[in-house]
Amino acid sequence: MKNGHRAVRELPYSPAVGSPHGVEVLSFAALRSMDAQRRRVLPQRPAFHVLALVTSGSGNHEADFRSSPLAEGSAVWIRPGMVHRWSDVEDCDGPLVLFRPGFLPDSTALEALAPTCWHLDKTRLGLALYAVEHLCREHATAARLPHLASPALLSHLLAALVLRALPDQLAQRDSPPPDNRTKDVFRAYQAAVEEHCTDWHQVADYATALGYGVRTLTRATRALKGMGAKTYLDQRILLEAKRLLAHTDVPVEGCARRLGFRDVANFTTFFRRQAGVPPAAWRTAYAATHTARGV
């Protein structure tokens, strides 16, 4: 989606030599070594997933306006398209698992329900690190002995890692997982929202385009995200509005046009209803907070 973000660095998936299978494992130390200019502290938008586990140290991470402190046991899952920054990871250590979209099998429900940041106790962190170690060994084998490479095996080891690292309330869900049709419906709706949220502001528009009823989209979205389809859509539009206000100098009137609102008054009413303050006031407060932090 073209949105005019100038201050957000786009990060394509560029695997290291010997990492042809869509997944690789780095460390916070390697991240710092590769980024001598400390661009990691500035907003960036990866086109791939990052699953990070903090084994020692402390720091801070920000993802789409939610700041999370990091400490031993912290887990962070950055999704493709998310605007985030490692605001302070100078003292952190632990693995970062990078993987391209589609490499994690049947990830729709997990990706939709899992938070961006959560905490693992020592037992669960240790088990997750065992899973990382197994993934690393198989990945090294695939790089060293290509005839033994198995993308399917790496994919399933990644799935085992994610399941092991999930928060307890997701890893031990009592309710049955959504069926495949529900996941397919939500996946289609999610993709359409990503593409058209600056043009289509009503769920009925997506229902017509996708060939589903509004109620079908609502049921699928509620099953995967715990909210209705309209709320999901409004939150996605609000997020894009905040990204424009925070990361560009586009005037509020220009933001309204880019987001598909008829006029600035309509946009202001929407933003105030969703965020509690008008867009200009939100931009001022955000800028003041980050200036105080020295960002």
From TrEMBL:
PROSITE patterns: HTH_ARAC_FAMILY_2. Gene3D superfamilies: Homeodomain-like. InterPro entries: AraC-bd, AraC_XylS_family_regulators, Homeodomain-like_sf, HTH_AraC, RmlC_Cupin_sf. GO terms for molecular function: DNA-binding transcription factor activity; sequence-specific DNA binding. Keywords: DNA-binding, Transcription, Transcription regulation. The keyword Ribonucleoprotein does not apply. The keyword tRNA-binding does not apply. SUPFAM superfamilies: Homeodomain-like, RmlC-like cupins. SMART domains: HTH_ARAC. Residues 187-285 form the HTH araC/xylS-type domain. PANTHER family: ARAC SUBFAMILY, HTH-TYPE TRANSCRIPTIONAL ACTIVATOR RHAS-RELATED. This is HTH-type transcriptional activator RhaS. It comes from Streptomyces hundungensis. The lineage of its organism: Bacteria, Bacillati, Actinomycetota, Actinomycetes, Kitasatosporales. The gene is rhaS_1.
